[in-house]
Amino acid sequence: xxxSTSILKIxxxxxxxxxxxxxxxxxxxxxxxxxxxxxxxxxxLNLSNQITLQPSKLKGIQTKLMPPxxxxxxxxxxxxxxLRPLRAGRLLDTPRQAARFVNVLGYERAPVVGGGGKxxxxxTLLPFLCRGKxxxxxxxxxxxxxxxxxxxxxxxxxxxxxKGVPHTWVLTCGTNGAITFWESLTGHRYVHxxxxxxxxxxxxxxxPAYPYSTIGCLFxxxxxxxxxxxxxxxxxCVFDLHDESKWKPMSVEAIKxxxxxxxxxxxxxxxxxxxxxxxxxxxxxxxxxxxRGLVCEHRKDLSxxxxxxxxxxxxxxxxxxxYETERSxxxxxxxxxxxxxxxxxxxxxxxxxxxxxxxIHRNARRAFATCLRSPFCxxxxxxxxDQVRLAVRVRVFAYPxxxxxxxxxxxxxxxxxx
Length: 418
Description:
CATH topology of the largest domain: C8orf32 fold
Strand order of the largest sheet: 10-9-8-7-11-12-13
Domain Centrosomal protein of 76 kDa C-terminal: 279-415
Subcellular location: Cytoplasm, Cytoskeleton
Radius of gyration: 26 Å
Largest sheet: 7 strands, antiparallel
Keywords: Cytoplasm, Cytoskeleton
Low-confidence stretches: 1-67
Strand content: 15-25%
CATH class of the largest domain: Alpha Beta
Mean pLDDT: 82
Order of helices and strands: EHEEEHEHEHEEEEEEEHHHHHEHHEE
Number of helices: 11
Protein name: Centrosomal protein of 76 kDa-like
Helix content: 25-40%
Number of strands: 16
Domain CEP76/DRC7 peptidase-like: 120-250
Shape: elongated
Structural class: alpha+beta
CATH architecture of the largest domain: Roll
């Protein structure tokens, strides 16, 4: 059925709830429990024999009871148990660098057996890092754990993106009340400024840059808050977690009883992150040599000769370093020096073209095939003209747990004949 009333209360046999939550769990341990739903909504179970549904969060969503999230072993775990403060030692220096590390881990949607929709399965930290890839929930819980380790007020947000696509991301609350969204799949950060729906039409309202549409709840290892504001649209929400008229908190004692060390759903201590075992310089050189060979073969098939400019290739390095610095630190540096060196290396009457691209794998052939799908890159690789000189530069940046960011730039210079 679909809900259209303002508040609906359904009496339910407590045995049904216990069958969902597991045997041997007393009511005092689960006074409230989040049940996963199609993410655009949330369902709060109250073990006093009734379920309170808030249709403002369930509009257009088919109501059904679903158990807490399963981990990779099929074990039901409260969502708060997937988080814990995680310190990276000396491997990651800043929260933004931690966000970059999470970003370069691969994205893979949770597999669904026999077809169907999105499977509600979350992966705990250790299996996620061992696989090196996971769904958006896995990225969000890892990033939130790292930000908690840096002493930030971090929470995982559960909601939707455009067109109602389920999504999770991370939120941090500053001591001054500033709200920042962290997208774990891209490493981007967005400052949240709520829109005032009651403001006069002539008042200029902030235009959100983030891709999030609605939010149903947020949580970390110690707290859980359900959104009970009139609208769950992110740009209209006020993130004052101390205001219970906007965010309904779960009992802290209840969370401790099921998520504290030694409880039935707690996870074993997490081992420290593994240091990078990759020689970045050697890996960069190996990929670059393979790419040069692939370019020569491709141009030979087109009956084109290939002449490499080693000096021009070397001059591309500062640009690749600047791109990674911008991704990991959020600041751009060195662009003026790069432009000046290129201007000096390209003679008068010649044209320079460059194409940078980023990967999170080290497969040179796969990267080359991707580059050829870009018309601009193909134009550089297949450049025809007078005094054509080609260049390619690869920079591999190593991160913990064998993760890496690979930057490649193809470039060419040639004499203009027009």
